[in-house]
Structures are given as C-alpha cells and as structure tokens.
Amino acid sequence: MGRIAVIVPVSPFEPAEIVEKSAVRIKSLDYANHEVRILYVVDIKNNDSRPKILRSIGVEVLERKDSRGKRAGAINDAVRYFEEFNPDYVAIFDVDSIPEKDFVLRCIEGLERNPDSYIASTPRYISNPVNFCSETISAEYMFINFLLSKSAFKQFNGLIGVLKWEVLSKYRLDEDFLTEDAEFATRMHSIGYKAVLVRNSKILEQAPLSWKELYFQRRRWYFGGIQLWKHFNIVRRANFGFKLSWMLSLTLPYIVILFLPLLVLSPPLILYKFRKISKLKLVAGIFIHIFILQFSAIMAIYDFLRRKESAWHPQKRVI
Q1: How do residues 199-254 score in pLDDT, each as one tens digit?
Q2: Domain contains 81
Q3: What is the DSSP string of 80-133?
Q4: Which range of residues forms the domain containing residue 285?
Q5: Distance CA 236, CA 246 (A)
Q6: How many domains, in total, are found in the chain?
Q7: What is the CATH number of the domain that holds 161?
C-alpha cells in the first residue's frame, strides 16, 4: 500500500476544544493499510496549549510563529515538512471538517480511476444547522453540490479532499492570493488536470452562525475571486468547457441579485428536499442571503479598487 500525509492548518483563533476533537476524529478515519502521518500546522498564539494537546493525542505538530501566507503558507510549510516522507497522497482538512470514515479511501479510489486528476473530494454539507442563518447556508450547500456535479471547473473550498503529492509538491500554493484554493484549482485546470467529485462519501463543515459572519466570509471570498482574473491569460488557452465554467463562476456571483425572481421556485424545492412545512422559513432566509451576498460582492469590489485586502475575521464554532 502507499503513503498518506494528512495536513490540518490551525489558525490562532481556533479553540483548543475544536482542535482536540478534530485530531481525535482525523485519527479515527479508515486508512486501510496505508502508512499515514498526520500533521497539524499550528499558528501559535500567546500561552498556546494546543500543540501540547495535539501531541498527547498522537499527531505531529508544526508550530509557526508568524502566520506567513496564512492557510496557503501553512500548507506549503507542511509540504516541505513531508518532503522526506514523500507520500503518494495528501489529505487536507480544516479543524471543523467532519469526513465520513471512508472519506480518504473513497477519494483515493477516485484519483486512481482518473489518471489526469489532481484532487478528489465529495459533496459537502453543514454540520451545525442550529439557527436560521446556518440552516439557510445548509440549503445553499445543496445548490453548490448540484453546481459541482455539473461544472467543468470543480473548485473544492479549502482544497478539502485528497490530492496527488506529485502535483501539490511540484506546484505549491500561491501565498499572494486571498483564496489560495481557487487560485490553485485555476492553475491546475488550466494545464489539464481535473478535479474529481466522489459521490459515495461525504464531508461536513461548520457554517457561519450569524449574517455578519457570513458577510465577512463572503466578502473575503469575493475579493479572492477578483484576484483570479490575473490568471485570465492562462485560462484562455484551456479547453472551452473549463473556460466557460471558470468565467461564469467569476461573474454570476457578483450579480446574484438578478436571480432574486427565481426565489418563487424555492418553496416546492424546499418541501421536496426537507419534507417539512416548517422549513419554508428558509424562503425568507434565502431572500436575506441573496442580499448579503450582493452587498458582500459590492464591498469586495470596493476593497479591490482601494487595493485593500478584505480582512479575515474569526468564525464562531459550535463545540
């Protein structure tokens, strides 16, 4: 069997309880007979107890003092850390990722079935639909999963999934981009690699718990989307299907308000999916959601014109 490196970046703001639960969860995944090393890349804060907690669970820890490059920098540092190990595959998770037990093995199967692939991942769902905001985002993710199944530009947020080591170690992440995951996906698709959506497993993650958190998250994502136009010259040489999907993904979200009339179609779809009358409240949630996304897009454009990068705001977690 092969070798698997697991990388989990940890920002200074992640609570120790969440990090501890993550390590226990990731260790318990099914890796079959593969040789596995699990590394948590921790951006250290004052009096940080998290590295000690992680080591007591039995995972490796790389401590970073400066948070250079944020998440992209953490993953690049982890790649350098694993150079001697020279794994076949790299699984990347966030601390709030809740993959099904067979997630890694199913993704490896997807990579092996597709020789020209660079990453495999699964549909993504929300693990904390505990209030009106996070329930609405949970409904949004169902739409995102549908788009992923149809698009020629499959971009898995955070690069959460399993990547081929030979690709990640060769090309690395660009630390100058705010959305390093979308930037890496753009480059890989442009040179002919593909992303594989694996349907026989799944992964969950936490959604923002307030409309304010959602606004800051999407403002940052939209800013990163504008940065991606720097790659237009390499994208225009790619195949038509990818080029069309890429351009639509970088234009339609910025005019999402134009899709507001389609909201009239949402009640029957919500009833079909959830089978509960009470879930019709999500119609109002989607209405609010659309306006927040549109305002986030406008403010991201404003930030870009001012040449001021959208600030990163910590997200509250359900522990």
Answers
A1: 999 999 999 999 999 999 999 999 999 999 999 999 998 999 999 999 999 999 99
A2: yes
A3: HHTTTT--SEEEE--TT-EE-TTHHHHHHHHHHH-TTEEEEE--EEES---SHH
A4: 3-305
A5: 10
A6: 1
A7: 3.90.550.10
